[in-house]
């Protein structure tokens, strides 16, 4: 059993519901807005553009915004379009979000010609 498996399964179902309804070709923000509606319609709390601060030796050195935080447990990063050659970069991006926070699970959701889901885990004992 994976960490937050039941929750991530619900999120992935919501992702496919949005993808099956909209298909391919919209801007990332459209998918983000639709996924927020779908998540909330399925009884999940979801916060968009969740701020993430990065610290070095207790000094803030940068900040990012994760696309969506679900149930205060899972970070979602959404990408629109086909980008096979850059998937690794986006996987590293969500891994860095997990490193910079106390959250341990992230999903990279790709709204391309073929929908894809990449699951990332970075446990707190590694931080």
Automatic annotation (TrEMBL):
User: What's one Pfam family here?
Assistant: PDDEXK_3
**Which InterPro entries does UniProt cross-reference here?**
GxxExxY
Entry superkingdom: Bacteria
Q: Which NCBIfam families match?
A: GxxExxY (TIGR04256)
Under what name is this protein listed?
Answer: GxxExxY protein
